[in-house]
Design goal:
Rossmann fold; 3 domains; 460 residues; seven-stranded parallel sheet; alpha/beta; Alpha-Beta Plaits; binds adenosine monophosphate
Length: 460
């Protein structure tokens, strides 16, 4: 058994002190198993799911190797989706905040190529991105990987499912043979084994049994019928009153219908699915993560890689056919060290799916009758924050501090009335308490940020 304290590892004292300040007191199982071989510079295959602490496992491996004085790309993480790439980039930035002058650049589709190329030219140590966009930059020579020491493939199984095999093998042609390769995958099908043979050298394979201690997520199942599914969902909200939750649906139409039903019943919800434009997707994710919306109604694809800290509950409006998808869905609640709640509705025709879930988890599913739950006639779920969209972004060199300064200084808001600030190339989003809304909007009628007249509007 390996020790579970980070200080048992050959990590710099700055990294260890930062982990302590992030409240990462103990290693998760995946970290305890994979960090020693990663830090010893081995190629490693890790079978681990979202929620296991895998990002910090490879993030620390990457950071321990970076030489900040050499301005070239030394580590690259390839992720299947933009959302996952964003989360990985954020987690690595948090882990790196103790090391001065580390530059990380995100390379994902949907963002201007030119801006990314400029950032790369300025000198990046770490690149995190999606396969298509990384390939674009390699073919234009705006990304050079001659000095790459570590290559990470995150959620490799999803990347293969999404048809990225050719892109990945093409990207690898641009990397030095001496690189260290780390591959993370939730499952380990034959296609992954085959890919590993061609891209990893004498890899060490690590498999950690389950993502969560089995009691960390409370899983409850409720039987209903097709006609009463909506009403049953409402009952779950009224009884459990989750502060925030993701409701999983099968189809885009179902997502829209369920979100509308919840809103009609005073539960503020937003739908997210593949039909949304990138800007609308960004907005929905921003509003959910900054607490301006407490319920996200999502398809599996749209929720991929979504990583919201402290997700109170995952609700299955309908059970998925594949038990692995069920486990993946509920893994979004009860992240490292927290407890979670997974609520599932099922009908007679989904009984086979329950049996598959029981077999997969090797334990029986606890069902509860819906009529034992407490209904609350006047239940309302209002989000604690609202979101302002500001018409200035990275392109105008806006930083979170500029917006915070304008709002707490000239506009006269209290610091605690302001929540998360997200900066995008052309826009920024600021979460504020509803009570402070009119003051903030008034300010932006004539107000300036960094000396420039700047407009703002409430997103609804
Ligand atoms: P991941 O599996 O990488 O998506 O990580 C799941 C969550 O656990 C993230 O929010 C991390 O910030 C958090 N986390 C990772 N490692 C630790 C740790 N050792 N202790 C506490 N939280 C952690």
């Amino acid at each position: 058994m390996s020790s579970d304290s980070f200080s048992s590892l050959p990590l710099s004292s700055a990294l260890i002190a930062n982990l302590d300040s992030l409240n990462y007191k103990k290693m998760t199982a995946v970290q305890a198993e994979s960090l020693p071989p990663i830090l010893a510079n081995n190629d490693v295959i890790v079978q681990a799911k979202t929620g296991s602490g895998k990002t910090a496992a490879f993030g620390l491996g990457v950071l321990q190797q970076i030489n900040p004085r050499f301005f070239g790309v030394q580590a690259m993480v390839i992720c299947p989706t933009r959302e996952l790439a964003d989360q990985v980039a954020n987690e690595i930035r948090r882990l790196a905040r103790c090391i001065p002058n580390i530059k990380l650049v995100s390379l994902c589709g949907g963002k201007p190529l030119r801006l990314q190329a400029d950032s790369l030219e300025y000198g990046a140590h770490i690149v995190v991105g999606t396969p298509g966009r990384i390939q674009d930059h390699l073919s234009r020579n705006t990304l050079v990987l001659k000095g790459l020491r570590t290559l990470v493939l995150d959620e490799a199984d999803r990347m293969l499912d999404m048809g990225f095999y050719d892109e990945i093998t093409d990207i690898i042609q641009y990397t030095p043979k001496t690189r260290q390769t780390l591959l993370f995958s939730a499952t380990y099908p034959h296609s992954i084994k085959k890919m590993c043979q061609s891209i990893l050298k004498n890899p060490i394979t690590i498999q950690v049994e389950s993502t969560h201690a089995s009691n960390v997520i409370q899983q409850l199942f409720y039987q209903t019928n097709q006609q009463q599914r909506h009403e049953a969902l409402l009952t779950l909200f009224e009884h459990h009153q989750p502060a925030n939750s993701v409701v999983f649906c099968h189809t885009k139409i179902q997502c829209d219908q369920v979100a509308k039903f919840l809103n009609d019943h005073h539960i503020e919800a937003l739908a997210i699915h593949g039909d949304l434009e990138q800007r609308d997707r960004d907005q929905v994710l921003v509003r959910f993560s900054n607490k301006s919306c407490s319920v996200l109604v999502a398809t599996d694809v749209a929720a991929r890689g979504l990583d919201i800290k402290s997700l109170y509950a995952v609700i299955n409006y309908e059970l998925p056919h594949d038990p692995e998808i069920y486990v993946h869905r509920i893994g979004r609640t009860g992240r490292a060290g927290e407890t979670g709640l997974a609520l599932s509705l099922f009908t007679d025709s989904e009984l086979a799916r329950i049996i598959a879930i029981e077999e997969y988890q090797d334990k029986s599913c606890t069902t509860e009758p819906l009529d034992r739950l407490n209904r609350q006639n006047h239940y309302r779920l209002k989000s604690p924050m609202v979101t302002l969209q500001i018409d200035s972004g990275k392109k105008n060199k806006i930083r979170p501090g500029d917006l915070l300064g304008a709002l707490t200084g000239d506009a006269g808001l209290a610091g605690k009335q302001i929540g998360k600030i997200n900066i995008f190339p052309l826009f920024s989003y600021v979460a504020i308490e509803p009570k402070a809304l009119s003051k903030a909007l008034n300010y932006f009628k004539n107000g300036r940020v960094k000396g420039r007249f700047t407009r703002a509007r409430l997103i609804q």
